[in-house]
């Protein structure tokens, strides 16, 4: 297991993020420390980063460097926000950092920033076309992609902090309304924003979008804690915008989901997003918690993100989770057997294609509860899966997979737990969970020795009995015996007797 240290100089903070990575192309964050520092404070007066800010930044970097050196991490990435490039003393500043801390920081160009954001989304979402929008303190990036390739992009010189210092008004509402008008006028100049395909998706990146997601989940009492891939629809955003618009900053600071130190910045960021909803967002925005850093790390460690876009986002995500936090022994074999059983039993379960994704997640993470304890690990599967950020899957897919993997012993299914998620699930989903749980348990039992003895299964339905005929490469007496132990649960769910040969 290798580690990579990423040092980031942002305009408001210095960040250290440590990633774990493997030789076969998987990586995951392991630690992150963020120290606030207003690097560009008062820079607008003469264009210079002030000496006090420089020394504060270097002091933080020295401490970060100790952490990395003590961990014996030799692989580093150091980059800084393009805004730093506007400082008249940026070269002298970065030279001093290099001489003092031996860290060479690369100033990202706008093209590199666009590429990093695009890479991050390509490793996080399975969509082929869409619009990516990032609202920063000084700029707003908008990227259009089609067939997973960037077709248009722009970096508007408008950010949460820049508009805050330029608009006037007696109330926050007046100021936010002016920001909406300014940004809308800039967006209207971009013809390509108004030529969008029907299936175009919208992804929001950055602190402001994440705050919108938090406020939306809080308002609707969303039962899941997942931030990535949460969808904010037009009505929900409008309610949040109207709420913030009607408050003064002191009250806005008290809202859960908004940092009290950044309430003013986030309020004006909301106005920028409001312009997007007014101009080109059709139904909803999906929140991404993966931004530039994730895209930079992916490009650095994998080196193929631009040339060979990742197509199986879900498969990569599940394999990555299993790499760092083992969730299933012989993951692929379990899933392959589960798919075979799913197809063979289709005449009985009659489930639609979307449930195959649920089956894949549940099969791949059917032992995730062992992270908590071996005893009753199947019930423990639920909190582990339900709180996992699984790329390429909706929150509903993840939730249903958590229920499937935790209900392999059908008597463990909890209707009271199910009711907690009544706004996300249906009666059809309830039927599907129970049927898929039986399939997952049977697949696990048919591979209990991890020797891949059972290669195929065929199904015959004779009256009130289902006969599963196994094709084996070696003795599979134990596998068949273990699979037959769930005959009682099979009868409860499928209404048929089970025989396995």
SSE blueprint and pairings:
Elements: E1 2-9, E2 13-21, E3 27-36, H1 43-46, H2 51-70, E4 75-80, H3 90-101, E5 106-107, H4 110-122, E6 129-135, E7 140-146, E8 149-156, H5 160-164, H6 172-187, E9 201-205, H7 207-219, E10 231-233, H8 234-245, H9 249-252, H10 263-279, E11 284-288, H11 292-302, H12 313-324, H13 331-344, H14 346-349, H15 355-364, H16 377-386, H17 395-406, H18 415-419, H19 427-445, E12 454-462, E13 465-472, H20 477-484, H21 487-494, E14 497-500
Parallel strand pairs: 1-4, 4-5, 6-9, 9-11, 13-14
Antiparallel strand pairs: 1-2, 2-3, 6-7, 7-8, 10-11, 12-13
Task: Kindly state the percentage of residues in helix.
Answer: 40-55%
Oligomer: single chain
Number of helices: 21
Query: How would you classify the helix and strand content by structural class?
Result: alpha/beta
Shape summary: globular
The number of E-state strands comes to 14
User: What is the CATH architecture assignment of the largest domain?
Assistant: Orthogonal Bundle
Q: Specify Rg, calculated over alpha carbons.
A: 26 Å
Largest sheet: 6 strands, mixed
> What is the total domain count?
3
Unreliable parts: none
CATH superfamily of the largest domain: Hypothetical protein af1432
Distance between the termini: 43 Å
Q: What is the CATH domain class of the largest domain?
A: Mainly Alpha
Q: Give me the CATH fold name of the largest domain.
A: Hypothetical protein af1432
